[in-house]
Amino acid sequence: MPIRRFGGHRSLVSQSPRLSYGYKKMNVSRSGYRVFSANSTTACTELAKKITERLGVELGKSVVYQESNTETRVDVKESVRGQDIFIIQTIPRDVNTAIMELLVMAYALKTSCAKNIIGVIPYFPYSKQCKMRKRGSIVCKLLTSMLAKAGLTHIITMDLHQKEIQGFFSFPVDNLRASPFLIQYIQEEIPDYRNAIIVAKSPSAAKRAQSYAERLRLGLAVMHGEAHHSESDMADGRNSPPLFRTTTGHTGLELPSSSRHHVPFPGIELPMMMAKEKPPITVVGDVGGRIAIIIDDIIDDVEDFVAAAEILKERGAYKIYIMATHGLLSAEAPRLIEESAIDEVVVTNTVPHEVQKLQCPKIKTVDVSMILAEAIRRIHNGESMAYLFRNIAVDD
């Protein structure tokens, strides 16, 4: 029986590992994760660069561009095998292109054998389409299914329009909050904020506004009545069927005797549904001689905010601030804000809005890259996320 000799061999435990076949060591992060931006435009990569600077890593090398026929193409320029990959995607005005960029990049990383693919999507698109409207569809649910199919295994987002959207996902979701940053801005940048009052633009926003008011130890006012129909009016399809229905003859359907008593008799009219009539805009709460701070999660079309500011001015508020997480600021929003009674609009940098800031100096930005970077670090290291949600109310 041959004798195996071990004495002549050097121990490999103390030596640093080498790559076989003469290949050089690949340019990967020491801690085994990489951060990529799913958009190559300057405005959209700004947040990604701030996050990577806080993490102390380089932004992953990739190219995202549109073909001449507008197809999206993604080229990943380095190895991602066996690593945790974080894709940062901010949503510019071209929402659908941004979604395709995210999907194509996630699938490219999946086929490149990435270990985990985590999407960092501060503003989740289509979040307002999370309820059934007449004969429409729940587009938000469709988008979550597409992200899962593309290869995403985790999502980091911020202030979802409805918290119940988390139930649409088949993988973990961390819904971070921007309220600590906005509250800090109120305390540090608004003079005499103790004389302020938190305002909910509609009853549906009252819970969020109440959370701010309780932490700032301020009063709360709620505005009721709107010039336009709110999104909740048409959300459940209750205006879809006719207001009443008359049965004039036999339908030809024979039902079991046990269920016949549930069907109206021929010729009987069903009760007519009364149409909603919203009252004129009123303010529940005293805003006279105070600073009014309107709280919301998204500011897009600003007509409702401008109308609310006019009412608050009439009621005696001498300064009006608007605080929102996501500043989409579509269409003529900068011009309308500049010409309105609004003194300042404060939003975070979850959505690029540098062009709008140039058009309207009233728009201010709060940086939230710190909490996004910390979430990335904790997820990669397997640490608890509870620290990021300390002192956060359920209604935030």
From TrEMBL:
Keywords: Nucleotide biosynthesis. One of its GO terms (biological process) is purine nucleotide biosynthetic process. GO terms for molecular function: ATP binding; magnesium ion binding; ribose phosphate diphosphokinase activity. Residues 40-151 form the Ribose-phosphate pyrophosphokinase N-terminal domain. Residues 229-260 are annotated as: Disordered. It comes from the Eukaryota. SMART domains: Pribosyltran_N. GO terms for cellular component: cytoplasm; ribose phosphate diphosphokinase complex. Seems to play a negative regulatory role in 5-phosphoribose 1-diphosphate synthesis. PANTHER family: PHOSPHORIBOSYL PYROPHOSPHATE SYNTHASE-ASSOCIATED PROTEIN 1, RIBOSE-PHOSPHATE DIPHOSPHOKINASE FAMILY MEMBER. Belongs to the ribose-phosphate pyrophosphokinase family. This is Phosphoribosyl pyrophosphate synthetase associated protein 1.
